[in-house]
Amino acid sequence: MYSQxxxxxxxxxxxxAIFLVFIIALGWFIxxxxxxxxxxxxxxxxxxxxxxxxxxYKGDSFALSSTKARLTKKEDNPYVYRMVxxxxxxAGTPTPKVYIIDSPALNAFATGRDPQHASIALTxxxxxxxxxxxxxxxxxxxxxxxxNYDIRLMTIVVVLVGMIALISNFFFRARLFGGKRDSNNRGxxxxxxGIIMIIGLVLLILSPIIAELIKLAISRKREYLADASGALxxxxxxxxxxALEKISQxxxxxxxxxxxxxxxxxxxxxxxxxxxxxxxTHPPIEERIRKLRGTT
Length: 296
What we know:
Its main location: membrane. This protein is α+β, with helices and mostly antiparallel strands.
């Protein structure tokens, strides 16, 4: 489990670094191709950061209200509340607010920008369907998302995706309306410069898709990390593995979930299949169970 955690952290850092290099490369290409300098890159950074600050501070409220989660006190559901409380004592983190979603779907999610401003939500379906050690594994997984600052990381990733979308959109609008492109300043170097420009154009066209794929890769790595961290917290990986098996066997979607909040849940709440699995924010449950059980 420790090696799995270290591996996921390294891979996440690498993916974020690739993201940053990709943005810088796009900014450089547009600066050269359109002769705009690097003002567009600065604009994209500032605009993306400002718009994302709103979701960073208010995103948890949106997620909880959109899923119709209701706040629960200890006296309302002492079984769940004490389980969360005990795991937080073990993890050494503040106890988050506990929410219940009235739904037969088997799912749960955590949200909040840091452990001091965090919430965890569980469906009534998952509370009734899982045994004590299984539900404990699910809650430990969600608490690990909070402790590992995954919400903060994914906010940064969303900023980076937004920057790439803005840069790409600006480029094609500038091309459509003429821009300030200088035919003498298109990369230089004759044939080599032409090849660089073609590669740059292809990457710019595909940049929104590439950005989304990198975001999905980071999201999936954080799910693996939360699985490993949660197993270490409970010291019983089999509990979470069995919970994931029961979750995978349920075909009931969470009606109040949406594509905007799907990445928060322990399992894809939309229960989509086929080609859409390629663009899922979650790794295959079978693979997660295999890793938890340490099998090949």
